[in-house]
């Protein structure tokens, strides 16, 4: 790796035959990494304003590197420089896939400088957009599922409608609620949160609605409840399905009438609180069991948001790991540690039954146990030997095909099965070719070659 020190803009140069193939420019700090694997790791730090990729890359296609770069640093523009006489089709394909620009080896220094300056402006605009949508800091990830949640929040944040957030324990339901509040016009006041499973019925009612002095034994003072505290703000009711039935009817009245009575008082209190509820089980199952009011379910479920399990969005693991690594190291007041490549790959394949919460705790544990080392290894995370639970092959893949009397087209049948497996792997990994190749026990380059072969057959 070679670094040219300067002042303001950080540029990562990937590939090339040694040296830094960029013109010298005041205010530029250029880091050159020939190994694409190391370059992808460096990109996760988020320290670069632009990436300059010199083609061809050793062991990587341009599309593969662009895919990994977009996952690791979505706001960093990638500029590709092809060999002399590079095909126009390659340039168009890369730009269509998200590359910022494509240049040839014949480009002049002036052209290179101009393109990079424009790339910096482009990145600054993205950064400004991120500041405007600062509520997105609660939602880490670029998977389709996370983008759907972000789009939903953007649509409903300014409304008064209730929202029901569902998902397994540890998936980040409270973070979604906080993002929804932060994106709304109620964000000037703090979010008020109540865990409905943490208090017995008599205390939970007083917690929600407050009480007057003498309302019950021990009520020696007047108390303002959570609904009043959340007036003109957002009330987050976690584990809503654990609320007692008697209290559910009172909650339903508050949602419908926008008023309630404190314990021990006959006076009605008007309130304008936006209610966001969450649960880690299917609320309709509780309705069927008679443990949750059906009318309350439909009153809460005006806008449903399903938070996926981490195993269903493994493509978000890299950015989550780096996010938690930065967070823990900042809290501990130490330089940000790095994760060994083989360890990072293992983290991306692990099933994470405890979801995002388990991942965060694992990163914190690894940082603490690593001591003064600047690199984290598998032993620091203490993950099980089996990284990703998979069903037996025989459970999902047919072991026998019946051949008709007149025979079959062997190549066509095998090709159909092969293509089906590739498509399934890519769907399960949200299009991440590296994870899909690992799932199929293939080299990444082999998977890419097979995909290109299928595309060529379709084109014919």
The helix tally amounts to 19
Number of domains: 4
CATH superfamily of the largest domain, by name, is P-loop containing nucleotide triphosphate hydrolases
CATH fold name of the largest domain, please? Rossmann fold
Which overall shape is indicated by the principal axes computed on the Cα atoms?
globular
Beta-strand percentage range:
5-15%
How is the main sheet built?
6 strands, mixed
Adjacency order of strands in the biggest sheet: 1-3-2-4-5-6
User: Which CATH top level class of the largest domain fits?
Assistant: Alpha Beta
What's the rounded overall pLDDT mean? 83
In the CATH hierarchy, the architecture of the largest domain is 3-Layer(aba) Sandwich
Question: How would you characterize the overall build of this protein?
Answer:
The chain folds into four domains: 131 residues, Response regulator (Rossmann fold); 166 residues, P-loop containing nucleotide triphosphate hydrolases (Rossmann fold), CATH 3.40.50.300; 71 residues, Helicase, Ruva Protein, domain 3 (Orthogonal Bundle); 64 residues, Orthogonal Bundle (Arc Repressor Mutant, subunit A). Helix content is 45%, strand content 14%. The strands form four sheets. It has a six-stranded mixed sheet with strand order 1-3-2-4-5-6, sandwiched between helices. With 460 residues, the protein is of the alpha/beta class.
């Amino acid at each position: 790796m070679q670094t040219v020190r300067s002042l303001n803009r950080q540029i990562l140069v990937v590939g090339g035959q040694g040296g830094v193939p960029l013109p010298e420019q005041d205010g530029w700090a250029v880091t050159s990494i020939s190994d694409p694997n190391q370059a992808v790791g460096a990109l996760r730090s988020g320290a670069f304003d632009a990436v300059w990729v010199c083609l061809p890359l050793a062991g990587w296609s341009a599309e593969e590197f662009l895919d990994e770069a977009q996952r690791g640093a979505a706001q960093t523009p990638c500029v590709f420089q092809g060999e002399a006489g590079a095909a126009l089709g390659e340039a168009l394909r890369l730009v269509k896939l998200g590359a910022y620009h494509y240049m040839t080896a014949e480009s002049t220094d002036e052209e290179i400088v101009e393109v990079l300056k424009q790339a910096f402006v482009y990145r600054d605009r993205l950064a400004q957009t991120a500041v405007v949508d600062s509520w997105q800091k609660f939602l880490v990830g670029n998977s389709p599922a996370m983008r759907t949640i972000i789009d939903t929040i953007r649509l409903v944040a300014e409304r008064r409608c209730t929202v029901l957030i569902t998902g397994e324990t540890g998936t980040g339901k409270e973070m979604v609620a906080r993002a929804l509040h932060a994106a709304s016009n109620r964000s000037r006041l703090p979010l008020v949160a109540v865990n409905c499973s943490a208090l017995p019925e008599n205390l939970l009612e007083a917690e929600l609605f407050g009480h007057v002095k003498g309302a019950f034994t021990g009520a020696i003072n007047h108390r303002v409840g959570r609904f009043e505290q959340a007036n003109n703000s957002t009330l987050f009711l976690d584990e809503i399905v654990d609320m007692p039935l008697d209290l559910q009817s009172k909650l339903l009245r508050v949602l419908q009438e926008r008023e309630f009575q404190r314990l021990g008082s006959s006076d009605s209190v008007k309130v304008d609180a936006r209610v966001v509820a969450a649960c880690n089980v299917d609320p309709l199952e509780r309705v069927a069991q008679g443990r949750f009011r059906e009318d309350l379910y439909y009153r809460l479920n005006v806008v449903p948001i399903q938070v996926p399990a981490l195993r269903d969005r493994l493509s978000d693991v890299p950015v989550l790991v780096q996010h938690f690594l930065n967070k823990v190291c900042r809290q501990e007041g130490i330089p940000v540690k790095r994760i060994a490549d083989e360890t990072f790959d293992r983290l991306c394949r692990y099933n994470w039954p405890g979801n995002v919460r388990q991942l965060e705790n694992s990163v914190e544990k690894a940082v603490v146990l690593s001591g003064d080392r600047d690199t984290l290894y598998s032993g620091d995370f203490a993950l099980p030997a089996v990284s990703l639970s998979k069903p037996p092959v025989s459970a999902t893949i047919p072991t026998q095909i019946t051949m008709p009397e007149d025979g079959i087209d062997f190549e066509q049948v095998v090709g159909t099965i092969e293509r089906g497996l590739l498509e399934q792997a890519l769907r399960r990994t949200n299009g991440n070719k590296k994870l899909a190749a690992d799932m199929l026990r293939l080299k990444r380059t082999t998977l890419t070659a097979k995909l290109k072969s299928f595309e060529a057959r379709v084109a014919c």
